Amino acid sequence: MLNKLKLAIFGGHKTRKISFPKYPTITELEKKAVMDVLESGNLSTFIASPGEQFLGGKKIQEFEKKFAKYIGIKFAVAFNSATSALHAAIASVGVNPGKEVIVPPYTFTSTATSALMNNSIPVFSDIKDDTYCLDPSKLSNVISPLTQAIIPVHLFGHPCDMDEIMKIAHKNKLKVIEDCAQAPGSLYKNKKVGTIGDCGIFSFQETKNIMTGEGGMLVTDNEEIATLARMVRNHGEVMLPTLKKRTYKSEILGWGYRMTEMEAALGIVQLSKLNKMNQERIKLTKYLTKKINSIDGLKHTKYENVKHVYYVYAFSYDGEKIGIDRDKFCEALKAEGIPCNAGYVKPLYLNPLYTERRAFAFKHYKGNTKYEKGICPIAESLYEKSVVLIPVCRPPATLKDMDDIFNAISKIIKNKNEFEMKGNT
To answer: Which residues are paired to 390 by β-bridges?
Structure first.
């Protein structure tokens, strides 16, 4: 019986026998940009020429200016990671220790831990089951007298419902920090994400749409936020263009969150390619979506008023309609040679950091937010049984690669009786 089975998970032939194209793509442009920095001997230059101390070297300042222009905002401040930029954002918008920051539970860990780094408290609010972003209708349930900010995450590249979020924020006098780590170049009603709230942050980690290996950026139209962010990234020291030498004068608590010249040089090259690379992602995923949505039980959703830039490709999975448990389906898909993930991260509040309140910030917290199963049922359902992620729908992949993804999915569903034959549904 085993030799007659078609699915690779049960010994059949794989749909795809070769790896997907490697990402990120490094060209001669990136190599030359880095070599130019190495040959210059200026690798960090946060002790630059008089009058520019602590503002970064030439490449860092060039990257900041070009990124700000691309986003369409006044100020951009480079960091060594998006986590650092988030931490600086929370401090710079004025969130105080012991106060609350609303975050989604279905996001990378630093969206929430950046609040704890500031000795403030993350409060989790549930998400939408189609875009996986914060559900504005749930925010009023978690706003308290201690709430000072909201961090909407444009997850996987799809923008949040920013109009509704901003209305709620203005009504309650809350700051809004857009987490755009997975969404550079994404649009909400023709506005680039990162320009709608008080500030936004971006990630340049090597898996992202634009990469510098590691790195991040904070953007804002508010000069005070930008100034404070520059101080946070540079040990809290005062930075004035009129200074002729370093004074080592610190006015706020700061850290060593500085980007290097090599990372900035990579970023300049990558930024010049971002629109083209995003368009390739959109082309690939549009092609795949038409096929995915033809299957009852699978659904990819993109709202009409947004530009989705597809950091990863996600679709909702209905195990009852398909007839295969989601996790078993993903095991079978990987066996067919297609990289995938069953769900994204476990809802963050279910981790010991929160359930056992391990961070110092909790010691003086006077609020009553809870971290327990059931507080965000949509996020829990998506994690446990309802989302499949495909991380290879990006250039240099091709439409032929998308065909392989869909052919593997179709093969599994067509031969789902094999799970019953193996007693493994």
So the answer is: 313
332-362: per-residue pLDDT in tens? 999 999 999 999 999 999 999 999 999 999 9
Span 55-107, pLDDT tens digits: 888 999 999 999 999 999 999 999 999 999 999 999 999 999 999 999 999 99
In three-state form (DSSP H/G/I as H, E/B as E, the rest C), the secondary structure along the chain is CHHHCCCHHHCCCCCCCCCCCCCCCCCHHHHHHHHHHHHHCCCCCCCCCCCCCCCCCHHHHHHHHHHHHHHCCCEEEEECCHHHHHHHHHHHCCCCCCCEEEECCCCCCHHHHHHHHCCCEEEECCECCCCCCECHHHHCCCCCCCEEEECCECHHHCCCCHHHHHHHHHHCCCEEEEECCCCCCCEECCEECCCCCCEEEEECECCCCCCCECCEEEEECCHHHHHHHHHHHECCECCCCCCCCCCCCECCCCCECCCCHHHHHHHHHHHHHHHHHHHHHHHHHHHHHHHHCCCCCEECCCCCCEECCCCCEEEEECHHHHCCCHHHHHHHHHHCCCCCEECCCCCHHHCHHHHCCCCHHHHHCCCCCCCCCCCCHHHHHHHHHHEEEECCCCCCCCHHHHHHHHHHHHHHHHCCHHHHHCCCC
Question: Is 241:217 a contact under the CB 8 Å cutoff?
Answer: no
Out of 5-9, 234-238, 352-356, which region has the weakest mean confidence (pLDDT)? 234-238
pTM (whole model) above 0.90:
yes
Quote the CA–CA distance of 135 and 158 in Å, as a whole number.
Answer: 13
